[in-house]
Amino acid sequence: MTTQTLLPEARSAVVVEERPLSPRPSLRDTVTQTFAMAWRAMKKMRRNPEQFFDVTLQPILFTAMFAYVFGGAVSGSVSDYLPLMIPGILAQTALTACMATGTQMREDMDKGVFDRFKAMPIARIAPLAGPMMADLLRYGIAATITIAVGLVMGYRPDGGVVGVIAGWLLTIVAGWSLAWIFAWLGTVARSAQAVQGIGMMIMFPLTFLSNAYVPAGTMPDWLQTFVKINPVSHVVTAVRDLMNGNGLTAQVGWALVACAIVVAIFAPLAVRSYSRKM
Q: Model pTM?
């Protein structure tokens, strides 16, 4: 009996070039990845136009409702109330729009969308900052509609076109900075409903316990103390100064400082909480 040994066929060696992955993405990579996430969020908005309902219908309803309900009681007439109210409506619509940022983020996390980023060597801040950058469009739409409705109702800003544009830009910056609060809530809350409920508890005190709709001097002394440290009050006063002809006052600088402080506190908290969940 002859035993035959079968030898395996020789296989050609394949040389694979291994590229070491950097432990942290560079600044350029972080910016590129953030813009990619922003483009993804923009495409999502295009396919879900209902995301624009709060920034298109709410400014119209709130501007008309507050003007005709409180105008005569606060300022004596609607026309005299508009210079006081329009900056307040701008702040409220921006705050409401940025609250939706945390809700949408929590919904994506619940659906497992963010789990897909686990195997990707991307910056941890990109999935958070990208959608927030896309939401700048929503803030711009809300601010534009609010100003347009005010002009139709008789608002004539003394700051002219330059002052209106400056107030419009400040509103968008304020909305983006306050959105980091809700982005952090989106990473720590257990559901989108929880984010929305907590967001409402934050939005109402920040908006109505401010100088958005009534002069702060008419409030009790203890409440005026909170109004003075409320970042929404700083933003509203700064927008009033820009749109009503007072120019670049110190309050504009304080508003920008308040926005920077909010970002400095809540952006690291959001990224840290998100990284832990990764």
A: 0.79
